[in-house]
Amino acid sequence: MSNSSDFLREEYTIDTPENVTFGYEIAGIGSRFIGALVDSIILVVSLMLLNIILGVVLSVTGDVESLFLGDENEIGWWSGLVLAIYTLLNFGLIWGYYILFELLWNGQTPGKRVAKVRVVRIDGNPVGFIEIVVRNLVRIIDFLPGAYGIGLVTMFFNRQARRLGDFAAGTLVIKERPEVGLESLGRRAISARPARLDVASDMPGLASPQFPNLHRLSAADIDLVQDALNRYSVGKADGYLLRRLAVALAAKLEMPDPAQDWRRFLNAIADAYRQAGQS
Q1: Beta pairing class for 11-15 and 21-25
Q2: Pairs from 275-279 (Cβ < 8 Å, separation ≥ 24)
Q3: Contact present, 41 and 115 (Cβ < 8 Å)
Q4: Same domain, residue pair 144 and 219
Q5: Peptide bond into 256 cis (omega under 30)
Q6: pTM for the predicted model, two decimal places
Q7: Same structural domain for residues 225 and 94?
Q8: Do both 164 and 201 map to the same domain?
Q9: Which of 1, 35, 205, 231 has the CB geometry, 3.0–4.6 Å to 111, for a possible disulfide?
Q10: Which DSSP helix (H) or strand (E) runs through 56?
Q11: Is 237 a member of any domain?
Q12: Quick one: 111 and 231 in the same domain?
């Protein structure tokens, strides 16, 4: 693993065992602030709605006055149940919001989607349950003494803009780059190792009915495809990586984006390249 020497570019690169280098653009404080602001607004609005619902329910049961006066003995069992449910929902919103969304959306919350950033592990792999829970439990320390005071100071003094939660969980927040070329994926020249495909690169006559511009791809491109697919099959890469690669290849082949069928698209390219080289 290595960091870019250019601090202003905020780049982070990861060398895989297959001699392929994947580059990521670090999400800076500004991008993360936007994401945190959106998430905070959603949480505040949700909590306000929850309190309004609580007030309406208690007004129906007639226990609003007893609640505000602190006279617990005058609160009925139905209102007590409502308060218990409210407490659980309140706790779930505050602590479960980030954990739930980052689990379901592969390292993203609604705010992170708006800011186009994503949480990944420090080795570039998708975050798991443990990393997500740890980084969000430490969030309370990052928030001290208020408005992410400790978190902002920590992010400012390290190149990867990681807060304490990221250090504790071994995570990193990166920018999404949906429109990306093969070169920006950080592909290292693979000519230093034997190519797995016995096909010459950039063959003018290389084509297939499904991919008319197949000749624009090289053996190194296909090696990159196979490396990504192999890593995905053993759980060392996620759909986000396949999407970036599929979009880049589609642009190079002058084809429409393959929607969400990225794995099948990449497999089809590799198969077509192999068959064209053997014909």
Answers
A1: antiparallel
A2: 275/208, 276/199, 276/206, 276/207, 276/208, 276/214, 277/197, 277/198, 277/199, 277/200, 277/203, 277/206
A3: no
A4: no
A5: no
A6: 0.60
A7: no
A8: no
A9: 35
A10: helix 29-61
A11: yes
A12: no
Packing angle, helices 262-278 and 239-252, rounded to 10: 50
Q: Which residues contact 189 (CB under 8 A, 6 or more apart)?
A: 220
> Do 225 and 148 belong to one domain?
no
Q: And the tokens for 267?
A: 């497999």
Does residue 181 lie in a domain region?
no
Q: Are 173 and 161 in contact, with CB atoms under 8 Å apart?
A: yes
CA 161 to mean position of chain CA atoms: 16
Distance (Å, whole) CA 44 – CA 61: 26
Tell me the two tokens of residue 238: 């996620």
Helix pair 219-233, 239-252: axis angle to 10 deg:
160
Q: Which residues of 152-171 are buried (b: 16+ CB within 10 A; e: fewer)?
A: bebbeeeebbbbbbbebbeb
Counted domains in the chain: 2
Within this chain, do residues 100 and 60 fall inside the same structural domain, yes or no? yes
Low-confidence ranges of the chain (pLDDT < 50): 1-9, 16-20, 69, 179-205
Look at strands 11-15 and 2-3 and give their pairing. antiparallel
On whether the CB atoms of residues 228 and 242 are closer than 8 A, the answer is yes
Q: Which of 225, 230, 218, 276 is nearest to 247 (CA)?
A: 225
Residue range of the domain that includes 255? 192-278
Which residue's structure tokens are 């077509």? 272
| CB burial of residue 107 (10 Å; 0-12, 13-18, 19+) | buried
In a domain, 14, yes or no: no
What confidence tens digit (pLDDT) does each residue in 149-180 have? 898 899 988 888 899 999 999 999 988 765 44
pLDDT tens digits, one per residue of 29-61? 888 999 999 999 999 999 999 888 877 777 776
Is position 240 within any domain?
A: yes
Task: Please measure the distance between the N-terminal and C-terminal CA atoms of the chain and give it in whole angstroms.
Answer: 40
* 3 state SS of 13: strand
